[in-house]
Amino acid sequence: MHQDIRGLDVTTSSPKAVAHLDRAVADYLNYGTNASTEVKAALAEDPYCVLAQCYRGYLLMMLENPAVFPKLRQTLAELEKAGGDITERERLHLAALKAWVKGDLMNACLAWEQVLNQWPQDLMALKLHHTMAFYTGRNNVLRSVVSGALGAWDEATPGYSHVQGMYAYALEECGAYADAERWGRAAVEANPEDLWAIHSVAHVMEMQGRFGEGADWLDYSRDDWAHKNFFKAHVWWHRGLFHIVAENYERALQVFDNELSSLNSETYVDVSNQAAFLKRLQIAGVDVGNRWDLIAEHAATRIHDHVLPFRDAHFCLALAAKGRFDTARAQIQSMAVFATEGEGWNARTTQAILIPLCEAMIAYENGEYAKACDILWPMRNELAPIGGSLAQRDLFSQILIDAARRAGRLHMTRSLLSERVAQFPRARRNWRDYAKVLTDLGDMDLAAKALQSADALPAPAAA
Questions:
Q1: Both 450 and 349 in a single domain?
Q2: pTM score, two decimals?
Q3: Do residues 384 and 393 lie in contact, with contact meaning Cβ atoms separated by under 8 Å?
């Protein structure tokens, strides 16, 4: 038995294995590219280290590819068969991994919560819980679990800045913007390498409409983040969103072409970020050329994944946006089978929310705008379980607004845009769109006031 860098027991005869695991956790939290290498090194030192086996499983699951499931199931079966004298913390990690492989994210999160109740300095459990609570859309859980562990941490505890960054993000998603920015900036100051903390502050700026400041905050180049993993694309995605809302569309396209698409390869295309980005541009009236081609082509290879509803939703969006409706409907058929045969949170969310959401996106892209409205309107405030942030799920609000406008549902459009200008009062395009629907409804006085609000905001900067 040896202890990790935060004093937690690890069942192993090798102190070198523990050191490798410490480095794996640090690299994982810093969004580096060496976590898997460090875990493999730990297993080379001690092939029977259960915590190392769990970490290996966690990293494989983060690939979000069902091809890893057979290997993981075999590993779990071997670990259960071997038994062995391990700690309760390690048993809970095994339980979390087992639930995650089954698609039961709720029970995976509950296992990590049990870890954190007894060992609040288990940074890997905290980060994994944070990530999966995010992917199940439970903002209050994000905040409560991090704050529940927070009292056991301070500046002297290795990795404290990561906890600060997680707390910042949780606060932001719960609307506590001032506190979120304070915690996030403290995290970045302590550790400028923490992309999650940088990203948490960007979320605050986005929700407050601080678009120019947000673009400057995220002004990092490919060279700056050459040593970072694929999460850097999501942070650049946020920089591009600031340009879209500020109507700097040429800059937004530059972010897409130079940062987002630059990560594409024959085996990896960042469909979620790229599809959501292109659709926002199209809704704003921007011609995106042939940029859907590669994204839809890759999405077509992933229609049977069903690892996360959030990913499946964006695969469907890419297919529908490209006009590949037969493939998109084949994906929905696959989702229906999965929802019937699967178990746990993933299957339930697929049935209740994901399938109708995808039906709405197909209808929208196929020009059936009234049908899209009929599906999206009653569920528009119930989308959190598919995961993602408030900013990410805002795409579906934009799709509904555009569908309502195109369907000629003026009163619905007016209601949605009234809500939007209240939420994002610094976006000129929102006010102009609101003025137009008010004009169409004959409410000229309110339309004039909406245009005045638009004109009072800064004009787009030159590209």
A1: no
A2: 0.95
A3: yes
Which regions of 174-236 does DSSP assign to beta strands (E)? none
Within a domain: 224: no
Residues in Cβ contact with 391 at an 8 Å cutoff, skipping those fewer than 6 apart: 203, 206, 207, 238, 241
- 359-371 pLDDT, tens per residue? 999 999 999 999 9
Q: Are residues 434 and 376 in the same domain?
A: no
**How many distinct structural domains can be found in the chain?**
3
Q: Do residues 312 and 446 both lie within one domain?
A: no
Residue among 324, 314, 340 nearest 393 (CA):
314
Residue 271 near residue 319 (C-beta atoms within 8 A): no
Helices (H) and strands (E) in the chain, counts: 25, 2
* Residue 221 C-beta-side C-alpha neighbours within 13 Å: 2
What residues form DSSP beta bridges with 10?
A: 2
Residues 373 and 414 in one domain: no
pLDDT at 31 over 70: yes
Local structure of 235: helix, strand or coil? helix
Joined tokens for residue 416: 């949605």
391 and 269 within one domain: yes
Q: What angle do CA 454, 240, 205 make, to 5 degrees?
A: 65
Q: pLDDT digit string (tens) for 36-67?
A: 999 999 999 999 999 999 999 999 999 999 99
Helix runs in 325-409, H state only: 325-341, 344-349, 355-365, 369-379, 390-406
Domain CATH number, residue 74: 1.25.40
Cα separation, 339 vs 341, in Å, equals: 6
Residue 2, beta-bridge partner list:
10
Q: Identity (one letter) of the amino acid at 388?
A: G
Which domain range does residue 110 map to? Answer: 1-130
